[in-house]
Amino acid sequence: TTQRKAETTNNNDKQQTTTTMASVSAASASDTPEQQSAPSPTKFKMDYIRTATQNYISRSANILGAPNLTTKGKSIIQADATIHGDYGAPIHVGRYCHIQKGVIMTPSVVPVSSDPLLAIDRPPSSGLGGGDGSIMPPGKNEKALPIIIGSHTQIGSNTHIQS
């Protein structure tokens, strides 16, 4: 009987889905051409990964060092966003955050000690990063600072954030 109830529930879900999709397609037939080109809900689901805490992360986002990324829930990370958790510093994103396309989040790299006798592996001419303005990962006697993004935050397209 348990299996029969599950089959009945699945059939009801299929009927509801079919009804919903039919009403969406009927509504979109009367819309303007600009509105018809909007992606369908099923395409949205394929482009994003939904986590247990209802975060939506684009499949084309670059999450480097994912174990260091903590999201509180109901946040969106769009395509081509790059988050550098691979530097070893924790990155915390609050609830209801919207990280748009092209955002780059990189932890700052600082010396471990203020002792001037400790050698830093960076060449003096390159500054913090390479010649292209990118930040190099921490070397010997250096550490990365954490990034904390508060709740209800929107980060605009092509923004570079450094802690």
List keywords for this structure.
163 residues, alpha/beta, five-stranded mixed beta sheet, four-stranded parallel beta sheet, disordered N terminus
Task: Give a description of the structure.
The chain is an alpha/beta fold and 163 residues long. The protein has helices at residues 2-29, 33-36, 41-47; strands at 48-50, 56-58, 62-64, 69-71, 76-77, 82-84, 91-93, 98-99, 104-106, 109-111, 142-144, 147-149, 154-155, 160-162. It has a five-stranded mixed β-sheet. A four-stranded parallel β-sheet has the order 3-6-9-14, with no helix packed on it. The protein has a three-stranded parallel β-sheet with strand order 4-7-12, with no helix packed on it. A hairpin with a 5-residue loop joins strand 1 and strand 2 (56-58). 17% of the residues are buried.
Beta strands, count = 14
User: What sort of overall outline do the alpha carbons produce when their principal axes are compared?
Assistant: elongated
Low-confidence stretches: 1-37, 124-132
Q: What is the ordering of alpha helices and beta strands? A: HHHEEEEEEEEEEEEEE
Look at the structure and give the mean pLDDT: 75
Oligomeric form: single chain
End-to-end Cα distance: 57 Å
Alpha-beta content class: alpha/beta
Number of helices: 3
Strand % is 15-25%
Radius of gyration: 23 Å
Strand order of the largest sheet: 1-2-5-8-13
Helicity, in percent? 10-25%
Biggest beta sheet attributes: 5 strands, mixed
